[in-house]
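can u pls check wat happens w/ guanosine-5'-monophosphate
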Amino acid sequence: MSEEVTILDKTFVKYIRDEEINAAVAHVAAQINHDYQDEPPLILITLNGAIVFAVDLLKQLSINARITCVKLSSYQGTESTNKINQLIGLSDDVRGKRVLIVEDIVDTGRTYQHLWNMLHEAGVKEVRIATMTLKPEAYKLDLPVHYVGFSIPNKFVIGRGLDYDGYGRQLPDIYQLKTEGNGR
Ligand code: 5GP
């Protein structure tokens, strides 16, 4: 796979390789298998971005978890908007359950906060989150982020499920938006 990809008007530079991501996913899966062996969670996948990470992760889980999805959107192009749109809502009864959110990326944490509130209003027993990537410099919440594949700088990334205007999700590596600082 090339070191750079161009999508629409933007160029992205390879940032984290496929093999490194696979190793991080395996590490996260091992932690989840360990922590949930006595009481498996309901796994809540956030569409669309988390689909690739979720598939990679689920294949390595040995716990007997139920799986469901919600669809939210807050990004337009490479910018986060303050408003979170819920496009597909929660269909499962979560009362008294442990829920493990699976995310592609936690940026400001607004989406996580939205889900956390929604799940607590619905009566969950416990909420945790597993994310492929976390941007610690952008993260604004006090809520813990329990399982993290990679902590990354506050720059826009694509690949491995992450998109730029709907494109780039299929890339097996993670790419960072090319700027003066990271261009080669
Ligand atoms: P938050 O609500 O934490 O600010 O942002 C979470 C959502 O914003 C993610 O699920 C993702 O859809 C989008 N997002 C945040 N940062 C990036 C990024 O660097 N690249 C892409 N493709 N999406 C991002």
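DSSP finds three helices and ten strands in the chain.
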